[in-house]
Amino acid sequence: MMTMTMTANTKMTSEEIGTLALEAMLLEVSVTPKPGLVDRNNSGAHRDMGFFTFMKSAAGLRSSFEDFAEAGIVGGVKKFLPREIFPYIRKIGIEAEKRMFSATGGVNTHKGEIFSLGLLSACSGYLSGSGREVKAGDVMKTAAEMCRGICERDFAEVKTKSPESLTKGERVYIEHGITGIRGEAEDGYPAVRNISLPALKKYLDDGFSMNDAMAMTLIHIMAHAQDTNIISRHDILTAQEVMINAKKMISSGFGLDDIKRLDDDFISKWISPGGSGDLLAVTYFLYALS
Description:
Layout: H1 14-30, H2 51-77, H3 82-104, H4 111-129, H5 136-146, H6 150-155, H7 168-176, H8 180-186, H9 190-205, H10 210-224, H11 228-233, H12 236-252, H13 256-269, H14 274-289
Helix pairs in contact: 1-2, 1-4, 1-14, 2-3, 2-4, 3-4, 3-5, 4-5, 4-14, 9-10, 9-14, 10-12, 10-14
């Protein structure tokens, strides 16, 4: 059994990794405007949460991300295989969700980010505990190794469940075969690696502020990632339309005024690309590592 204490020297501590995860959550919700999502201007296509709900939730989760990172560090020191660490971080994730619901009064603000940032915190810790430099590319590769087989395992029994017991992600899988964030993680976050991380770096290199660069990067994510939150709230056609329109924005050139108009449109249609927002937080986390 792994213990949750260690004395080995590492390149990054669990506190440093946990701080970056918290930073990613805080910056993601602070980016304004974000179409249909909670930001500093409005609550997007949501009635049960707002900016301060996210602040409370993020504050309550900081120690959980240290726990994710520590589990990875210990696993690296003890020379565990990445996939052997996954059961431990899943237990940490369950406790993190309890903390989130306690802080928000039962509102789901960060479930997707708990999964992805928790996983990537553990992967960062694993590399550090293994004596390796913590680089974004290696973190994503380790995530794929740590999550190997997750889709097959998690979806194996889905079709035998009663309809009322299905989660939103399971329902989307049954109806459309889309694996959502599990598939993204098992593939090593290709949407981030190939699309959003290069986009964020380019916008920052071009002189955009972090807020504006992240707002524009979100459109790139929406153009390429299947957003299961849109599918579960609406349907596959709505999600496809969002992707097509985001691609048109990118090809024709766009700015913050265009994003603000899209925000108004999404609010009127009650569209919330929450999965894309989660990947935006992931993008910042991996950018901050480098």
